[in-house]
Design brief:
Structural class: mainly alpha
Order of helices and strands: HHHHEHEHHEEHEHHHHEH
Largest sheet: 2 strands, antiparallel
Number of domains: 4
Radius of gyration: 49 Å
Shape: elongated
Strand order of the largest sheet: 1-2
Number of helices: 13
Number of strands: 6
Helix content: over 70%
Strand content: under 5%
């Protein structure tokens, strides 16, 4: 929709013809725009919708603007038709015709008489007074129509954009929500019994409310583009929809986890029983080894081995009961907790066994070292040396006697190594630290 040139003195015939041609082109452009607005899907939806809030207020004003637009256009058409009739009276317009045409084409020659309702609701531009009757030049009238058209189109396009984007997406999400509810029901996830069931109820309520708000007040979900003056510049606000879509995704993942539990619950329970059984056997072995250490190793503080925790067995029995009654939503978190605790228990049992059997490992290492040096001496033909035999027998008696004092036995092994090294002409074996003394500072 264009704007005519500025007013001026009395126009000549060429100026009149050019002005009429320009006004005719503008008339066609304005008519095309108004018809397109009249047929716009958003406008038809707004006419039939039960609107509320911001959209209701804007549409009341926009309806009045559209009514004024047609009134302005009719007046503009009448003025243009009158000018064409004057120009068509004669081929060479007279001075009087040119004066009349100049006043019609450039002066405030158009009178607009509107209804009180239309002018009361329509926006007043350029500080207008909103009078029931106004005088316009054709230039001013075109400007007025352009501005009213832009405001009306902006409102219609914004509402249509929201209606085109959000309700359909909400309906698709609602359908996905319904499928998720069915899965949740099959997995035993119900409101009041599982957080995911409560989340599904909350999402359902919010989506129902959101759709009703979008249908009745679409402009409440419209974000205008910053710095844009073009009609319809902006985008729908989908933040509420996006938030609920993410929440539904989280619920769906949780339900999928519950359904996965239903598929492999038996295998996981069998594995749990095996892990806890291995932990029990390891603890039993540690208790047995502790008795052996106390009987065979002297002057050693052996840690006490605790028994298996009964709470894990009770929780395992509870998990089996959940599986038996298909309470998958309760079984899922319990299995995850039990699997972590069972692995920790097996690790604790192995550490207990290692701590208890450390003195036996030290004794075995000393025995191996003594026999290795004896074999080395024998390879060099010194196996019958009385001094070495005496040192060897002393160390062996200490290592193979019960209870065995590991500190004294290690010193005996070192004396045998030193004696062997001297006879073999090798460097002396450096003094080595003894086994860890677990008796404390008073030993």
């Amino acid at each position: 929709m264009g704007v005519t040139g500025p007013p001026g003195p009395v126009m000549d015939r060429d100026e009149v013809d050019r002005a009429l041609a320009r006004l005719g082109a503008e008339h066609e452009a304005i008519e095309t725009s108004l018809l397109a607005l009249q047929d716009h899907a958003g406008r038809r939806l707004l006419e039939g919708a039960d609107l509320t809030g911001t959209t209701k207020e804007r549409w009341t004003s926009t309806e009045a603007s559209i009514t004024l637009l047609w009134a302005y256009f009719d007046a503009y058409s009448d003025a243009l038709r009158a000018a064409r009739e004057i120009r068509s009276r004669r081929r060479w317009s007279s001075r009087e015709d040119l004066v009349e045409l100049t006043e019609l084409l450039r002066g405030d020659s158009v009178t607009i008489a509107g209804s009180a309702t239309a002018t009361a609701n329509a926006p007043t531009l350029h500080g207008g007074s909103g009078k029931l009757s106004e005088q316009f030049s054709l230039v001013t009238l075109v400007e007025r129509m352009n501005e009213l058209y832009a405001i009306s189109l902006d409102m219609v396009v914004a509402a249509d954009a929201v209606w085109s984007a959000l309700p359909a997406r909400i309906d698709l999400l609602a359908a996905e929500l319904q499928r998720t509810r069915q899965l949740a029901h099959s997995a035993g996830v119900r409101p009041g019994e599982h957080p995911a069931g409560d989340d599904l109820e909350r999402i359902t309520r919010i989506l129902t409310s959101l759709r009703a708000q979008v249908v009745s007040d679409p402009l409440a979900f419209w974000v205008p583009a910053q710095g844009s003056s073009a009609p319809g510049g902006g985008k729908p606000d989908t933040s509420k929809y996006d938030r609920e879509a993410r929440a539904l995704d989280e619920v769906r993942r949780e339900i999928d986890a519950v359904l996965t539990v239903r598929q492999d619950a038996e295998a996981r329970l069998v594995k749990l029983r095996d892990v806890l059984s291995r932990a029990d056997r390891t603890l039993a072995e540690a208790r047995s080894a502790r008795g052996e250490v106390l009987a065979k190793i002297a002057a050693t503080e052996v840690p006490v081995v605790s028994g298996p925790p009964t709470v894990l067995q009770e929780q395992l029995a509870t998990a089996a009961e959940y599986r038996r009654h298909a309470q998958w939503h309760r079984l899922s978190p319990l299995l995850e907790s039990l699997e972590a605790k069972a692995e920790d228990e097996l690790l604790r049992a192995r550490e207990s066994l290692s701590e208890v059997t450390q003195p036996l490992a030290v004794r075995a290492e000393l025995r191996g070292r003594l026999d290795a040096y004896k074999a080395k001496v024998a390879r060099h033909g010194l196996a019958e040396d009385p001094f070495l035999i005496e040192r060897y027998d002393a160390a062996r008696r200490m290592l193979w006697s019960a209870p065995c004092d590991l500190r004294v036995a290690e010193q005996a092994v070192l004396r045998f190594q030193h004696a062997a090294a001297e006879l073999l002409g090798a460097p002396r074996v450096p003094q080595q630290g003894g086994p860890e003394d677990r008796r404390g500072p008073g030993a």
